[in-house]
């Protein structure tokens, strides 16, 4: 497995990962987090993903040359999250292939984000996620060193959790 930088030419691969994750969530009954339709079929989500890629730093995890994970980080939080008054590295997107679950792809990408933050002299990392359902996603980030730092309700009316990590 290797992690490489990405760019807008990786949009199709990122959308495929998002489509796979959405289908997996729907198969488990989670239709509230990302809806039920593939991201690649929704022009607004395609445009939003392209914007995240072009305004942030994209990292792609590959296994045998195929993309199996993607992460976008930025020095700015998502627009719906209150900014902080110190430099930060914000994980704006993290998605991994469900076909390769258990291979620690997400953990490796988060470790990459930590090393990038340290290299930039940043001592705060934050992320936000869906806090609904049974809270599995919040617990995932907590297992990876994040702590709960606030809640919000998104425009789509789903509960969100902001998490932070001091480096």
TrEMBL record:
Any single Pfam family the record assigns to this protein: Acetyltransf_1
Record key words, sorted: Acyltransferase, Transferase
Boundaries of every N-acetyltransferase domain copy: 1-167
Domain of life: Bacteria
Record-linked SUPFAM superfamilies: Acyl-CoA N-acyltransferases (Nat)
Keyword Transferase: yes
Name recorded for this polypeptide: GNAT superfamily N-acetyltransferase
Organism name: Kibdelosporangium banguiense
